[in-house]
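Reminder to self: tokens first, then the designed residues, so the page reads top to bottom the way the pipeline ran.
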């Protein structure tokens, strides 16, 4: 939540900051702002709303001109979205931007008020600026001393970009919990919440560790520890291409990312298959390490949790190990029965989701082993897990997750296959057959994407609905959950997912004439049962959209519309079958005219609980 950037170099700082913020807007878009050194003075420009609103404001009022500064795009936590609550915030000589939450800000604010300090916003961030300035004054104007003293007082999470009026053209940065990288270019340096913000300028960066302080100036970039000692760090190279963070001719990032799924699957699974069999040794995971777990828990949020639901079905069916799937925010506060002998799998695209990270730390403290399935390299969850499998989806910019989900389930399949083989619950021939099927999914998905117009036609029938239901059984139920979340998240149409067999225990009373019901029926062994449930809603007036095998021709009493899928194995069908659900959600949102890539009230990376 919130994205921060900073720049020192020869370029026009405002341009670089705004460009970086445009790549980070997925992290929040309640307000945006920059602070730039103009003629040795700090000049701030900020505005409620999107980056576009800030740009318009600067066209009218003039853009701060200089070669060093900081910037911010906000997802509001403390204080409503407004101009006065927008970052950057100041206190005396200090101006800063912040990503995270200061949990003890009230106590700190009381202290600062008692010192005669005056506040201009309702944010926790302004407290940090005032506290920094308090220590800065108390330490005879030494910024690093002030930063170290301030960081010792702060509880919560933060990544901070700071400028001091007395140190023109210098940017200071530090972090705890919230991510921050330091980019190194030719004669220029950057800070950013995420590498996508700097890819246009450099691929070289340092990962700032908690407590480390970066100091950027025209001459050099230095990093200090909490004892004011200069430290040397390993320079990393981003393997994402700059085009990965651009729309590349697509109307929206979400559509681009849906179409990137075949490539994302190939890139993710290819290095983990040897001689036709799953091989996770590249990730340090051997069959010996996998066997012996008495139970598996999958902990995640939102779409990543839905990927865990697919994983549960597959692992239990193939590897015969019991799997619990938990929402991370519930898991961490319900005294879970987890301990030695358990494996806790944490799935996360960003690797920074606060609840998932906390759940993983809890699981570790209880003695469980942890395995992270993460897309963002070097993220907190990736760094703290005992075992790690990176998904290689590339940057996912749209708030609605699509390609990240796809590769999360691809990894769950590989994991289940390897575990089942190691357990002896599946023999080598069957494991080889299943792995081969997984390798077929990219081509299958290509063929489904070619029918995107069909999804568009279906979307046309949904846009007037106030409410929808998604139903399915088994793996199709797990998919319904994902389809429903996708639709409500971006089209703002209320939607629920239900296990098809459960409807008649209450929910069927919601069905009214023409209410759309999207039924997913890819599981052959459950097909007749699902069709019976569909007939029950159809008989009560529902307008049914059926996602099923293309060979099936539904009678009038079953479905009004159909999205046909090529014949495929039941177990792996979620990979192709989720594609029409993503496309239907996408086109419904487009037809409704919503902001598809940045739906209201949301942020991509949820770093607060
Ligand atoms: O970064 P994570 O995978 O941990 O994020 C988890 C959820 O916040 C995320 O999947 C969210 O539900 C998506 N916006 C859904 O499209």
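Designed residues (609 positions):
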């Amino acid at each position: 939540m919130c994205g921060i950037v900073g720049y020192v170099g020869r370029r026009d700082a405002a341009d670089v900051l705004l460009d970086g913020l445009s790549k980070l807007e997925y992290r929040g878009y309640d307000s945006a702002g920059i602070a730039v050194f103009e003629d040795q003075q700090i000049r701030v420009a900020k505005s409620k709303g999107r980056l576009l609103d800030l740009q318009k404001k600067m066209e009218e009022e003039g853009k701060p001109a200089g070669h060093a500064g900081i910037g911010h795009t906000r997802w509001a936590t403390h204080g409503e979205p407004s101009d006065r609550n927008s970052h950057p915030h100041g206190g005396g000589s200090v101006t800063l931007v912040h990503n995270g939450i200061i949990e003890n800000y009230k106590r700190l604010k009381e202290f600062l008020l008692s010192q005669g300090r005056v506040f201009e916003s309702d944010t926790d961030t302004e407290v940090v600026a005032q506290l920094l300035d308090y220590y800065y004054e108390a330490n005879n104007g030494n910024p690093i001393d002030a930063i170290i003293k301030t960081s010792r007082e702060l509880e919560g999470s933060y990544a901070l970009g700071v400028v001091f009026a007395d140190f023109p053209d210098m940017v200071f940065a530090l972090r705890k919990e919230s991510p921050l990288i330091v980019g190194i270019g030719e004669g220029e340096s950057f800070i950013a919440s995420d590498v996508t913000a700097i890819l246009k300028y450099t691929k070289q960066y340092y990962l700032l560790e908690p407590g480390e302080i970066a100091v950027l100036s025209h001459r050099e970039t230095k990093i200090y520890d909490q004892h004011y000692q200069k430290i040397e760090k390993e320079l990393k190279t981003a393997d994402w291409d700059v085009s990965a963070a651009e729309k590349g001719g697509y109307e929206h990032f979400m559509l681009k990312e849906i179409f990137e799924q075949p490539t994302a699957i190939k890139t993710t699974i290819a290095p983990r298959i040897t001689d036709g069999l799953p091989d996770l040794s590249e990730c340090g995971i051997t069959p010996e390490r996998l066997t012996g777990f008495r139970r598996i828990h999958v902990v995640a949020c939102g779409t990543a949790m839905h990927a865990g639901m697919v994983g549960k079905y597959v692992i239990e069916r193939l590897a015969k190990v019991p799997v619990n799937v938990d929402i991370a925010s519930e898991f961490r506060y319900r005294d879970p029965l987890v301990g030695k002998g358990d494996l806790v799998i944490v799935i996360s695209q960003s690797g920074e989701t606060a609840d998932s990270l906390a759940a993983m730390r809890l699981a570790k403290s209880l003695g469980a082993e942890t395995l992270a399935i993460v897309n963002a390299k070097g993220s907190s969850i990736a760094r703290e897990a005992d075992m790690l499998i990176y998904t290689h989806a590339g940057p996912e910019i749209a708030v609605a997750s699509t390609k990240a989900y796809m590769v999360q389930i691809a990894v769950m399949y590989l994991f289940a296959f390897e575990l089942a083989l190691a357990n002896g619950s599946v023999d080598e021939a069957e494991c080889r057959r299943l792995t081969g099927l997984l390798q077929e999914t990219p081509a299958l998905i290509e063929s489904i994407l070619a029918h995107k117009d069909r999804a568009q036609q279906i979307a046309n029938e949904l846009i007037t609905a106030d409410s929808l239901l998604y139903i399915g059984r088994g793996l199709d139920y797990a998919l319904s959950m994902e389809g429903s979340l996708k639709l409500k998240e971006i089209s703002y149409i209320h939607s629920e997912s239900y296990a098809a067999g459960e409807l008649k225990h209450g929910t069927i009373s919601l069905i009214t004439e023409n209410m759309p019901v999207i039924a997913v029926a890819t599981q052959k062994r459950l097909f007749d049962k699902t069709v019976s449930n569909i007939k029950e809603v159809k008989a009560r007036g529902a307008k049914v959209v059926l996602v099923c095998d293309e060979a099936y021709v539904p009678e009038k009493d079953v479905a009004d519309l159909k999205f046909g899928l090529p014949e495929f194995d039941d177990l792996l069908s979620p990979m192709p079958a989720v594609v029409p659900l993503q496309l239907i959600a996408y086109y419904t949102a487009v037809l409704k005219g919503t902001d598809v890539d940045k739906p209201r009230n949301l942020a991509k990376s949820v770093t607060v609980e």
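The pocket of 5-amino-5-deoxy-1-O-phosphono-D-mannitol is lined by residues 301-304, 348-350, 353, 356, 399-401, 485, 489, 605-606 (CB under 6 Å).
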